From TrEMBL:
GTP binds at residues 236-241, 255-261, 280-283, 340-343. The lineage of its organism: Bacteria, Thermotogati, Synergistota, Synergistia, Synergistales. Pfam families: MMR_HSR1 (PF01926), MnmE_helical (PF12631), TrmE_N (PF10396). Residues 226-385 form the TrmE-type G domain. GO terms for biological process: tRNA methylation; tRNA wobble uridine modification. It is found in: Cytoplasm. Exhibits a very high intrinsic GTPase hydrolysis rate. Involved in the addition of a carboxymethylaminomethyl (cmnm) group at the wobble position (U34) of certain tRNAs, forming tRNA-cmnm(5)s(2)U34. The gene is mnmE. PANTHER family: TRNA MODIFICATION GTPASE GTPBP3, TRNA MODIFICATION GTPASE GTPBP3, MITOCHONDRIAL. Its cofactor is K(+). Mg(2+) binds at residues 240, 261. This is tRNA modification GTPase MnmE.
Length: 462
């Protein structure tokens, strides 16, 4: 059964908000209507907290259930609504020992606080309207950021830049809808009239704006979760050698025997703030070997599911028929071609490959050439992101990107209804649906299960 108590804001919740382990300080936090009363029973300073101004650090002692002081601590309280959660909040900053922090929490629970669920403080900030859902999710982005760029993108979203963009799109949609409805309801009256051309211009501008936001969300997602690059090609062309060179360590076995790699081997690096997860795969060929056959089908799966494919061919040997088929398949997916083994006499040139794949990005290299490998990393990132974009990301999850795409498709549908001369109420109903998706994105309408799902990914105490 799903625990639904989390939507109840009457409880006062408590948890240790710092990491579990020995440290200089640990913070135990309380939020809710009883926060001050409960804390008062376990804290003794020169003055009680209630007689201490909010946000003022008061020195005192933590008292156990018998009134014996067990630690010297600092206590501070925040008066609702000026706090992280929007409720009364008390923080006790005790020494960062495992025992003392747990004791402090236990004492507060004994005095009537309830143990907070993961993410419940942030959830309350959301439920109390202090932050919207994109900001709440950005908190997790800040906590999990693994690079400066990822951190900046999460912080930008936490500050509300994505919310502001989306809210302004919402307002534009609402304005258009209002005028449309007025036109529909009172066609004869003297109300601001929206010509078909004006309408088309406005909707187009909104669609462009949305595309930009979606792109920036994708960048932010890549900054946080990384991009998957599958290294594929026929056996013995040097996939594992290039994989090792990209990672700058010997992770995969390299031998002159075709069919060396069977399992998928993953390894990641961070380039320009973007985590790149490389997947070395089994050489693609038809084989009777059972293990290799399984490896080949795993390689094909990786090829389909990756964000980018790195197709390796051996420049010192003729292309096989399978490779020519492969080239045709790659046309449908984003990819980079690397002609390997440039250090030995070549039988395939860049032009030969270009004839087959005129649109593709092609590089001639040797897995031993460090400079070329650096260039390859650069091209991988460039292939997926405009240079400027990396500094403009928004923290977003796959679900948020899907929601934004739904908004976009509603706007696009409204444009095509308009262009094909369908009745204006069709345009209006598409715009209404677009606004519905924005409401979901910002958490202005939500179901409890979704909220539970989102916040349960947070750490305890956040
Ligand atoms: N000790 C401590 N550090 C922390 C937090 C915390 O709760 N406690 N935070 C969270 O976990 C983050 C900071 N986030 C916060 C966001 C808003 C408010 C706040 O009180 N806002 C009020 C008052 C603003 C003012 O007057 O300065 C407001 O916006 O109304 C507090 C913390 C990170 N560091
Ligand atoms: N001359 C030369 N040989 C290379 C280069 N890169 C790899 N090789 C050699 O090519 C052979 C195959 O290399 P691997 O990296 O194991 O090839 P692979 O594509 O992973 O092969 P499978 O795992 O069997 O699919 C090895 O003998 C490597 O030393 C290169 O740039 N130049
Ligand atoms: Mg290999």
């Amino acid at each position: 059964m799903l625990e639904k108590s989390f939507l109840n804001l009457d409880d006062t919740i408590a948890s240790i908000s710092t990491a579990w382990g020995e440290a200089g300080i640990a913070i135990v936090r309380l939020s809710g209507p009883q926060a001050l009363d409960i804390a008062e029973k376990a804290f003794r300073g020169i003055k009680p907290l209630k007689d201490t101004p909010p946000r003022y650090m008061r020195n005192g002692f933590l008292l156990d259930e018998r009134g014996a002081p067990i630690d010297e601590v600092l206590g501070v309280w925040f008066r609702s609504p000026k706090s992280y959660t929007g409720e009364d909040v008390v923080e006790i900053h005790c020494h960062g020992g495992l025992l003392v922090a747990s004791k402090c929490l236990e004492l507060l629970i004994a005095q009537g606080a309830r143990l907070a669920e993961p993410g419940e403080f942030t959830q309350r900030a959301f439920l109390n309207g202090r932050i919207d859902l994109t900001q709440a999710e950005a908190v997790l982005g800040v906590i999990r950021a693994k690079s400066d760029e990822a951190l900046l993108s999460a912080a930008r979203t936490l500050r509300g830049e994505l919310s502001a963009k989306v809210n302004s799109i919402y307002d534009s949609l609402l304005n258009i809808s209002a005028t449309l409805e007025a036109n529909l309801d009172f066609p004869e009256e003297d109300i601001p009239y929206l010509s078909k051309d004006d309408l088309f211009q406005s909707l187009n501008a909104i669609a462009l704006n949305l595309q930009d936001v979606i792109y920036r969300c994708k960048v932010g997602k890549a900054l946080r979760d990384g991009i998957k690059v599958a290294i594929v090609g026929r056996p013995n062309v040097g996939k594992s050698s290039i994989f090792n060179a990209l990672l700058e360590e010997t992770r995969a076995i390299v031998t002159p025997i075709p069919g060396t790699t069977r399992d998928i081997i993953e390894g990641s690096i961070v380039h320009k703030g973007i985590p790149i997860i490389f997947m070395d795969t089994a050489g693609l060929r038809a084989t009777d070997d059972l293990v290799e056959t399984i490896g080949v089908s795993m390689a094909q799966k990786a090829l389909r599911e990756a964000d980018l494919r790195l197709w390796i061919i051996d420049g010192s040997e003729q292309l096989t028929k399978e490779e020519i088929d492969m080239a045709m398949e790659l046309k449908n997916h984003s990819h980079i071609v690397a002609i390997n083994k440039a250090d030995i006499p070549q039988v395939i040139s860049l032009e030969d490959v270009r004839q087959m794949l005129p649109e593709s990005e092609i590089m001639v290299l040797s897995s031993y050439d460090k400079e070329a490998i650096r260039e390859l990393k650069e091209r991988i990132v460039k292939k997926l992101f405009k240079d400027s974009a990396i500094n403009e990301g928004f923290n977003a999850t796959a679900r948020q990107i899907e929601t934004l795409k739904s908004v976009l498709s509603c706007v696009e549908n409204s444009i095509s209804s308009l262009v094909s001369g369908e009745p204006q109420d069709l345009v209006a109903s598409n715009l209404l649906e677009a606004r519905y998706h924005i409401d979901r994105l910002l958490g202005r309408n939500f179901d409890e299960d979704l909220i539970h799902l989102i916040f349960s990914q947070f750490c305890v105490g956040k």
